[in-house]
Design a protein that fits this description.
6-stranded antiparallel β-sheet, disordered N terminus, single chain, 186 residues, 5-stranded antiparallel β-sheet, mainly beta
Length: 186
């Protein structure tokens, strides 16, 4: 994995802790006997030195992380983490979509769904905390690649990250627009 990939992987893992799914037809609070199940996740750590993304690359930038989920379903939630943060982490907007091909940043435009947190597009996650998105209706198969895009207005005071070979990070400077295609990206 290149240094750039490690840096970018640490970037989104500062926010993305995992995806959880429920079977088809499940409600926000699953019925008795049903529950949310983790479908992707990574161990959290504090990235050091060369593995930290420079603050300038966070400012008014969006980041897309492609993750391969182990379970399918019709609904999902995204857990965002500021576990090792020393100050609140502000996320201006977010979305989730089906990637057009394994490990690729481009998404199926018809599948783009906004992320909401208590009904709001933006969320501020306190230092040491994690937040889970509201349920998102998005049918996906086991083994599907989901693209999670987040817009940051500024760099976190301290990054929460992870390094994993299953992470495919992509970033671009611009307001969050849930761009289906990232030109010049794999």
């Amino acid at each position: 994995m290149s240094r750039q990939s490690i840096l970018a992987a640490s970037l989104l893992c500062a926010a993305l802790a995992g995806c959880v799914s429920t079977p088809s037809g499940a409600a926000s609070d699953p019925p008795a006997g049903a529950h949310w199940v983790a479908s992707w996740g990574s161990a959290q750590l504090v990235p050091e030195g060369q593995n930290e993304l420079p603050a300038a690359q966070w400012r008014d930038a969006s980041l897309r992380q492609v993750v391969r989920v182990s379970l399918g379903g019709s609904r999902l939630r995204v857990r965002l983490s500021n576990a090792f943060g020393t100050a609140p982490l502000m996320i201006d907007a977010g979305s989730v979509a089906l990637a057009t091909a394994p490990g690729k940043a481009d998404v199926d435009a018809a599948s783009v769904r906004p992320l909401r947190f208590g009904g709001a597009a933006a969320v501020t996650i306190p230092a040491g905390a994690e937040y889970v998105s509201d349920p998102v209706e998005l049918a996906h198969e086991a083994g599907a690649d989901l693209a999670i895009s987040l817009h940051f207005t500024d760099a976190p005071a301290r990054q929460t990250g992870a390094v994993s070979l299953s992470i495919f990070p992509y970033s671009w400077p611009a307001p969050h627009k849930s761009r289906p295609r990232l030109s010049g990206r794999p």
